[in-house]
Amino acid sequence: MSRSSYNIDIESVFEGVCGLFPNLKPEEKDIMRKNITCQYFRKGEIIYKEGDTPQGLVCLSKGKVKLYKEGVGGRDQIVRMAKPIGFIGYRALFAEENYSATAEALEDSVVCIIEKNAFMGILRNNAELTLNILKSVATELGFSTNRTVTLTQKHIRGRLAESLIFLRDTYGLEDDGKTIKVYLSREDLANLSNMTTSNAIRTLSGFAEEGVIELDGRRIKILDHHRLERISDLG
Amino acid sequence: MSRSSYNIDIESVFEGVCGLFPNLKPEEKDIMRKNITCQYFRKGEIIYKEGDTPQGLVCLSKGKVKLYKEGVGGRDQIVRMAKPIGFIGYRALFAEENYSATAEALEDSVVCIIEKNAFMGILRNNAELTLNILKSVATELGFSTNRTVTLTQKHIRGRLAESLIFLRDTYGLEDDGKTIKVYLSREDLANLSNMTTSNAIRTLSGFAEEGVIELDGRRIKILDHHRLERISDLG
DNA sequence: GTTATTTTATGCTTTCAAACATAAAATTAA
DNA sequence: TTAATTTTATGTTTGAAAGCATAAAATAAC
Lengths: 235, 235
Known about the structure:
The structure is a homodimer of 235-residue chains.
Chain A (H helix, E strand, L loop, with lengths): L9 H9 L7 H9 L1 E6 L4 E3 L7 E7 L2 E6 L5 E7 L3 E3 L1 H6 L6 E4 L3 E7 H9 L2 H27 L2 H16 L14 H8 L3 H13 L3 E4 L2 E4 L2 H10 L1
Helix pairs in contact in A: 6-7, 6-9, 7-8
Chain A binds a DNA duplex (30 and 30 nucleotides) through helix 8.
């Protein structure tokens, strides 16, 4: 990665973030501009840890981030996969709690932070904006309870198939129309799908043998979307 | 149950609901009063079904309600247990989606509904109230992801112990300081803890043999809170 | 009060996924 | 480069929980 990537164009990052808030008044935008900071994270670096106190609203401007909770036997559970441009860690901010998951960069990433009090001040005077955020948090709560059910009730094949579809829908496909545009380790794939690494590897090999996917290291090509969806649906 | 229970005192129910909104202006309270309806549900009756469209903000004024999603193999997953005075179904309302779970009365219950547009109109003009709701939905999202991890990673004993603690903390104890103040069937207990009914029965018997709890039909007495918490924590 | 039906209780069997054990391949470091 | 470490790949064993069967108990229906 070239050195120049370290130079972040704050203004363009800021404009990207503002794109997520449709009807911001000029004075609100001004407050945000004055209270934003940017940070660069290399692949594998921790953006924040479970238990840390939120200092502001964190926005992922570039890169990919996984959010995971440490589980019972030290086994991690990935609870969310973030893509740009989008927020991370807002749940804890709005709940006035410490972070309930750790955020780690999966690729070199750019993150900017809008200072907590500045942002909450905007919310307190903008019911429409707050209602929009409420809507998206409520939507996410729906995803979460859905996820609880599928992770607990589907069998290994169904869970892995669902994860692959989820990754495809979240990050999209490469230009070939087949390769999932994110390159996770088998361990991450396992932690996303609630299974051991061995089982992720085994089940993935199984899918490849059946011709549903094609494997090339961490690159996963979906050859038969329909069949993959069937595997996911059957559980 | 006596016939007179069917006569609901709407005004007192309304005052109870308003208690959940601390700083409501008189005119807002007026709008709510004009847009509220009450309904009585007998034990076992369905308040709304997964897939139904919310007509308003539903408040449980009296009784107990379980919220469950139909799982993969017809196995239900209880996603929430509601107690009075509190709301149910608000997630779908705020997400502008259909209900993602079914609400069923566990006891004879009184429910009141604040008409959707009236309530959303109040929210659109009251950022403070909206922010309060955002906070509680964000808190619940935290519970939900926590739950995903424990339901997937803890073993049967840990999951059941956690459920018993959850029920104790949600509904409290009878005057004896031991008996959990809710009487679920073994099947409900299983659906809450992500296990089969047989395993709920088996594991419950195990706890009783070990002297952690005492069973008397559906009545569950917690004899050793500390040990129950240890079982839950160890997973 | 008697009959059905549902719920609870236990034993036995099966199965799916975890745990363990290597080993090969791919990265990273020296 | 070579060595060290991590990741990926498979085979084997073990174990926890589901599935099934049956019966007793409790509850509801008649």
